Amino acid sequence: MGLCKLGCVPWLLGILFLSSLELLCMADVHYYDFIVRESNFTRLCTTKSMLVVNDSYPGPEIRVHRGDTVFVNVHNHGSYGFTIHWHGVKQPRNPWSDGPEFVTQCPIQPGTNFTYQVILSDEIGTLWWHAHSDWTRGSVHGAFVILPAPHETYPFHPPDADQTIILESWYNDDYLELIRNSTLYGQAVGIPNAYAINGHLGDTYDCNDTIFRMEVNYQDTYLLRIINAAMNEEKFFSIANHTLIVVAQDASYVTRFATDYIMITPGQTMDVLVHANQNIGQYYMVMRNFHDSAASSNNNLTTAIFQYKNSVGGPRNNASLVSLPEPDDSNATSSFLSRIRSLRVRQNPPLRVPRAIHRRVYIAISTNSIPCTNDSVCITEERFVAALNNVSFVFPVIDILQAYYKRSINGVFTKDFPLEPPEYYNFTGDLTILNRNVTMGTKVVMLNYGEAVEIVFQATQFGAGGSHPFHLHGFSFYRVGSGSGNFNNVTDPKSYNLVDPPLINTVHVPASGWVALRFFANNPGVWFSHCHFERHSSWGMDTVFIVKNGGTKATSIRPPPASGMPVCSGA
């Protein structure tokens, strides 16, 4: 998590951009060991034990170069099983190491280990890794930094140093117990007790908690690698008296623009330049929630310090005076997101926005309720669920990838996820009189290799309403359009940006609105798609896209690792 001086690695000064073949030839192989076990941490005057990697919160940073391969041997020294996901890494033809529990693998059981092969391709900048089991990612997560390849340059003047900034949720209770009790009682998990920046709660809470300090030199430029690892909260972030220059999102360069704040959803990463050009002193870095639903929210400010060397005294301003949008300022969110455009530079993959679409998927997002079952001790007669096109996803006991690849395992999933809502209505209107019951099932979408795909996510006013961050594993996609109200498939595509849409892996779906994504299904495998609000994913706001093999070995799923996969207890 420390500040990395970029001037100490001379290969960053190279000026030649290599072809894909040259990059492959120069790619390196890295090895990491993750020891996952319980460790004690004290926050808010309370000490608790939680599962972490290598006794650190956040976990260790992986720092490699574009095109490298990383082997991570994960040792489970804890008391329950989990998996690790490499968020935003496409893993070409390698779903075996993607990580979502019961989708591409079964949990790594206590006392065992599993080695992930993380294959990088064209990703550049900042991604992250996190547990993908229940709510374990609340404490098991860390940064995945992808530096330019040897002899490759930044598409901007190289910064003097870079710093990872991870935005987090903090619960005094155990993460696994939180979701287990939520499932048992059919109710939502409560709001966090606090939030953290790089594991520090800052100085706005009642206890004397530590505050993260980033020490800077006057007139130096810093690249902030910002990751929203919060469980259920989109975030505004700003630095007092300093301008932020956004240069990348989700490991892809964007057209640079200046802003006083950013809005970043859970799962997203954003690279931001900051020039330390103010009077020598200490300045607050501040984050708070963007919240546009009827659900409860904690709107506390959380702080860190942007500290010039040789400064004395405390921060120059009050944290509450830092310029941030109001927590429910949807206009500030949409205004910020509308400025993000792909940058046409050689360091980015060629811009290939699908135009002739082969497969369209229109997905209505909802939170719903169903009658309480006999195996639950519900507080009310109904329990919360969430759904896509009225299907609430049920995780199987054998992973979907194994069942699909082996062909001999039946009954794990069905291929009938609806490609449009089963019923059309005013999705963003008053829905109080509509039936909110859903179908429970493990339904997937089948895609042919190479198809041009368009997905439109439609937010609805079921439940608390509000916006949603959606993540698709195995791909980056183009965010080609967004709007308010119900999507109109005749008029709304006329407003699409097919020239320079941002290339991302996690997208903000606006409350009472829609967002349109496009990509080519050129990565064979089993790929999870889900809301990155952990409470919604836990309730079933998920589905799976299976991309069939192409006609050649190079367009087909790689064989499973020779050492085997974690054993499924339900097999």
From TrEMBL:
Binds 4 Cu cations per monomer. Its main location: secreted. SUPFAM superfamilies: Cupredoxins. Its cofactor is Cu cation. The keyword Oxidoreductase applies. Gene3D superfamilies: Cupredoxins - blue copper proteins. Residues 1-27 form the signal peptide. Coiled coil: none annotated. It is found in: Secreted, Extracellular space, Apoplast. GO terms for molecular function: copper ion binding; hydroquinone:oxygen oxidoreductase activity. GO terms for cellular component: apoplast. Residues 36-148, 163-311, 417-549 form the Plastocyanin-like domain. Keywords: Apoplast, Copper, Glycoprotein, Lignin degradation, Metal-binding, Oxidoreductase, Repeat, Secreted, Signal. Its EC number is 1.10.3.2. It is an enzyme of class 1 (oxidoreductase). It catalyses: 4 hydroquinone + O2 = 4 benzosemiquinone + 2 H2O. Pfam families: Cu-oxidase, Cu-oxidase_2, Cu-oxidase_3. One of its GO terms (biological process) is lignin catabolic process. It comes from the Eukaryota. Lignin degradation and detoxification of lignin-derived products. Belongs to the multicopper oxidase family. This is Laccase. It comes from Gossypium davidsonii (Davidson's cotton).
